[in-house]
Design a protein that fits this description.
The complex is a heterodimer of chains A (291) and B (513). With 291 residues, chain A is α/β, with parallel strands linked by helices. In chain A, 43% of the residues lie in helices and 20% in strands. In chain A, helix 4 links the parallel strand 4 and strand 5. With 513 residues, chain B is an alpha/beta fold. Classes of the chains: A alpha/beta (291), B alpha/beta (513).
Chain lengths: 291, 513
């Protein structure tokens, strides 16, 4: 066992108790295997201090009322915390078992209190890739709002994020939504260096208003990926990017989309809309968001 | 063209959406706990009525002044406060400060002082004076609440003295109901049961007892906006400014204290500077609708949290329900016997007093007990909580300086075959330890050279540096050559560049001793 490599970086699978948990677990296992890094499951325990369970309407103040109330609230909260903690632990262990059957040697698990976004920002130093569930068009019924929070979260993070929407399908064909910008160019670099996509055929798609420089960048990107030993095809699809890319995804049976995410400011997004959000809404395949 | 329209339409949709995302906090603070907030608001409103009346009587004004104030403050603070779930209204601490102003100049000056208090509190919020609370130690806070409890009880004493045997019986019976009824059911506020029972008893038996109605006017209409009827002159300002300044300090002190208590109880955080400004806005509003200045209430906030109130809705509903009940049931409220009010206020005073602090007198360090006792004594003597806190804070400062002044050690060793001596100074040198520092050297020793190593010491002020000068002079007068080493490092603390030591270096710096 001399070849054990100690990686600092890990794949962090962020799960909540929704039906996405299994998809997230599967995709995270796939990514951890491909990247050959450890896998960790993260479950955020919500606390709701804004809710109460008041049933004492006696309205009287005994001696040391503060102290008595404090003791009572601590007791109630600790019972609640213990239950949530144990439930979360059981939930995480089922996902852990699932990952182990898929060949991950020793996935770790972690529960944290707090807000998802804050927790992920805290953790991102030791993370190679985040895997999150995202509410797609087909999943309106789920109560969890990872989907709604996705943009806020993605903006706060500096690491790639794999946003999954559906049952795990081993990715067989990847598409890179290429805009010639810095983020996607860096993304191409990353894909070329990454073991995750090396064996997969890959399409690089340039859409929207096609400028000369973007076409040049597209060609450079193609060369870079094929130099890395990948089977690459470069496509230029003039027209509305959202519609064109979604059509290409269907026609070419793409099962993973890669794109730069939210490279523009919030202000610009408010007034002009965000291509990332539009695409995320339209494309139902798992999407790797690059920062 | 289509593109442009699409963009415009998109913006029209997205701007409100972005705005709504910032409304998420508002939704959580207002609407996440509706049922419990409303119920808690009702419990608090019922508890506020007797208190608002009692505090008006302490201040020497009609009950309606305190009731309008409680309504206005609770409603306004629910929107602009920094601590959701905290109850603010007319309070005893503030009422005590107003007594002289009301007696000498009348209600209108009180209303003007309330408005000015609000303005000063808003300024305090802008200046972030809330952070000054860190100088108010635990012992001072304990002294504050104990003094408050004692004064609230003392305000009831005249009523108890005046009471007939029947009245005394009613007070005792009322207290029994308040404390024992919760063992029967916690669904109904026991102070309410006490009030209803005693009122019914008095009416039924036709007892001739003093009632709330005898004490002054109750609200008979919704509050109306009115500018305080005072001349806008410098003289007016001279009358109201000192009172407003005290009210500002007392109001913010109790509000910050209460906010911390609610923070702890609910395990959440609050924005203290927003709360300062919110208190200011609420007091302005109160003064402009004929109410007295108020602040956060420890007891009521505890009752609110205990009853399940967590959000802003609890404070809001407490204010609205309070006034609605007064307007609907005003005639009945007027017939509440004073003995019922005394019973409720006795409960408030017992609940406010920190009984653990009496045990603490034996167990805690003497300095902390002295600070607490001094705070209580000054407040009870002057009826001014701000003065008590000031004395408490100053005393804590003295005790602290005294303790830190003891952290000084001077080691010595002879060198160069008895021709020279080296002094090694370790510790804190400032006004409280300067004399001890000077006395640590042996000036009578017959010697050629002295070396004073102060690199492990800290000079905190001019007094400390001056003490070193005096040591050097004393040695030189004996014809001794003096060499001081490490002074730069040692006096770095004095030049107030604390930022340098804020980091880990600072910890190391002090931890070295």
């Amino acid at each position: 066992m001399a070849d054990i490599v100690h990686h600092d970086r890990k794949v962090l699978a962020c799960v909540d108790k929704s039906r996405f948990a299994h998809f997230v677990a599967d995709y995270a296992s796939w990514a951890a295997r491909g990247l050959n890094v450890p896998l960790e499951f993260l479950h955020i325990l919500d606390r709701h201090p804004e809710l109460s369970s008041g049933h004492d309407h006696s309205g009287s103040l005994g001696p040391e009322p503060q102290h008595a109330l404090m003791e009572q609230l601590i007791a109630e909260d600790s019972v609640r915390s213990k239950i949530a903690r144990e439930e979360g632990r059981l939930f995480l262990s089922t996902l852990r078992d699932r990952a182990m059957t898929q060949g991950i040697s020793n996935p770790s698990m972690r529960q944290r209190y707090g807000e998802l976004e804050d927790t992920l920002v805290e953790q991102q130093g030791s993370v190679e890739l985040f895997v999150l569930g995202r509410r797609g068009e087909s999943a309106q019924s789920t109560g969890r709002d990872l989907g709604r929070n996705l943009e806020r979260m993605v903006r706060a993070l500096q690491k790639p994020i794999l946003a999954v929407t559906q049952e795990f399908v081993t990715p067989s064909r990847v598409m890179v939504a290429f805009d010639g910008g810095v983020v996607t160019r860096r993304g191409i670099e990353m894909i070329a260096n990454s073991v995750l996509f090396r064996s997969l055929p890959c399409d690089i798609v340039l859409s929207g208003e096609i400028s000369n420089s973007a076409s040049e960048q597209l060609e450079k990107a193609r060369i870079k990926l094929s130099d890395a030993g990948m089977q690459v095809e470069a496509l230029t699809l003039p027209g509305d990017p959202e519609r064109e890319i979604v059509r290409a995804i269907q026609e070419r049976s793409i099962d993973m989309l890669v794109m730069g995410a939210y490279s523009h400011s919030v202000l610009r997004r408010i007034f002009r809309g965000s291509r990332t959000s539009d695409l995320l809404r339209a494309a139902t395949v798992p999407t790797l968001l690059l920062r | 063209m289509y593109r442009v329209l699409q963009r415009v339409f998109g913006a029209c949709v997205r701007v409100p959406i972005a705005f709504c995302m910032s409304l998420k906090t508002l939704r959580i603070e207002w609407l996440s706990n509706v049922r419990n907030d409303l119920l808690a608001g009702l419990v608090v409103a019922l508890a506020l009525i007797p208190e608002a009346i009692a505090f008006s009587l302490i201040a020497g004004v009609d009950p309606k002044v305190g009731l309008y104030a409680s309504f206005a403050i609770a409603v306004v603070i629910s929107f602009v406060g920094g601590r959701p779930g905290m109850i603010s209204a007319a309070t005893g601490a503030m009422a005590l400060v107003m007594v002289t102003l009301v007696r000498d100049h009348g209600l209108e000056y009180l209303l003007a002082a309330s408005v000015l208090t609000g303005v000063l509190q808003i300024i305090a919020g802008w200046l972030r004076l809330g952070s000054l609370m860190r100088f108010v130690s635990r012992s001072v806070i304990t002294g504050f609440v104990n003094a408050l409890a004692i004064l609230i009880f003392m305000a009831q004493v005249p009523e108890i003295m005046l009471a007939t045997p029947t009245g005394l019986g009613m007070i005792v019976g009322g207290l029994a109901i308040i404390y024992l009824f919760p063992y029967v059911t916690k669904a109904v506020p026991s102070p309410l049961v006490c009030i209803v029972a005693l009122t019914a008893l008095a009416i039924w038996l036709g007892l001739d007892v003093r009632t709330v109605g005898d004490m002054g006017a109750l609200p008979d209409q919704l509050p109306i906006f009115a500018w305080p009827n005072v001349p806008l002159t410098l003289e007016t300002l001279q009358i109201i400014f000192p009172v407003a300044l005290t009210l500002t300090a007392v109001g913010l002190l109790e509000s910050m204290m209460t906010a911390t208590i609610v923070d702890d109880l609910t395990d959440t955080s609050s924005n203290k500077n927003v709360e300062c400004q919110g208190q200011g806005i609420a007091n302005i509003a109160s003064g402009l609708v004929g109410g007295m200045a108020g602040c956060a209430m420890i007891g009521q906030s505890v009752i609110n949290v205990k009853s399940g109130g967590r959000g802003r809705l609890s404070t809001f509903s407490a204010g609205v329900l309070l006034l609605s009940m007064i307007l609907l049931l005003g005639d009945w409220v007027a017939r509440i016997p004073m003995s019922a009010l005394v019973a409720v206020m006795t409960m408030v005073s017992i609940g406010t007093f920190s009984w653990a602090s009496i045990r603490g007198l034996r167990e805690l360090p003497a300095s902390s007990s002295i600070v607490m006792a001094a705070t209580v004594a000054v407040v009870v003597g002057t009826h001014d909580l701000a003065k008590g806190v000031l004395v408490g804070v100053l005393l804590s400062g003295f005790f602290f300086a005294n303790k830190v002044g003891k952290l000084l050690y001077v080691g010595t060793a002879t060198t160069d075959n008895g021709r020279a001596r080296e002094y090694n100074v370790v510790g804190q040198i400032f006004f409280a330890s300067a004399d001890r520092f000077i006395a640590s050297f042996d000036y009578k020793e017959v010697i050629e050279r002295v070396r004073i190593d102060v690199s492990s010491a800290h000079f905190w002020d001019i007094t400390g540096v001056n003490a070193l000068d005096r040591v050097v002079i004393k040695f030189r007068r004996e014809g001794v050559d003096v060499e001081v080493i490490g002074l730069n490092r040692a006096s770095a603390t004095m030049v107030d560049r604390f930022a340098l030591h804020d980091k880990s270096d600072g910890v190391e710096l002090l931890g070295a001793h």
